[in-house]
Design brief:
The relative contact order is 0.33. This protein has strands at about 5-10, 40-45. It contains no helices and two strands. A two-stranded antiparallel sheet has the order 1-2. The structure holds zinc ion. Zinc ion binds near residues 13 and 38.
Length: about 60
């Protein structure tokens, strides 16, 4: 099972969300909910890398 790539980016300008270093741990990265650049809200964006879907029946 492969994990989808998810990026946390600003919904307004697309810039990468700032990392909240105070709440992040070694195993979990916490991103800020507000863009540093434009003040817009950040959210998860799914990245599709053109890989084959391995769930096909054969
Ligand atoms: Zn922004």
């Amino acid at each position: 099972m492969s994990i989808s790539n998810i990026e946390i980016v600003c919904m307004e300008c697309g810039k990468e969300a700032p990392i909240n270093h105070e709440e992040s741990t070694e195993n979990w990265t916490v991103y800020g909910t507000t863009c540093e650049e434009c003040g817009g809200k950040t959210g998860a964006k799914f990245i599709r890398g053109g890989e084959r879907d391995e769930t096909s029946n054969s």
